[in-house]
Amino acid sequence: MAYHHHHDRHHHHNKDEEKPVDYKKEEKHHKHREHLGELGAVAAGAYALHEKHKAKKDPEHAHKHKIKEEIAAAVAVGAGGYAFHEHHKKKEAKKEEKAHGKKHHHLF
């Protein structure tokens, strides 16, 4: 299953406005989403550990806690995958910026 997230901003010009793409803004956008994915992965992982602990402490409802733990673990993996995807998109935006001559290094 391949999922691709495309924006009009990945092209040289926006279709509606014919303005050049702001690659720095694009890079910041993906960096922000990458951090949200990381945060989601950490939060879901922490919740999975919490449910694992509850399963041990509450044997009467252990099955319920184990299911919640497994769901939270799957969410953590998914959020980690999303963060990785956004990291790739951020690198892609940086590469596009460089390819379009937007970086000017002044050495002197």
UniProtKB/TrEMBL annotation:
Residues 1-13 have a biased composition (Basic residues). It holds the Pfam family ABA_WDS. Residues 14-26 have a biased composition (Basic and acidic residues). Residues 1-38, 85-108 are annotated as: Disordered. Belongs to the abscisic acid and water stress-induced protein family. This is Abscisic stress ripening. It comes from Castanea mollissima (Chinese chestnut).
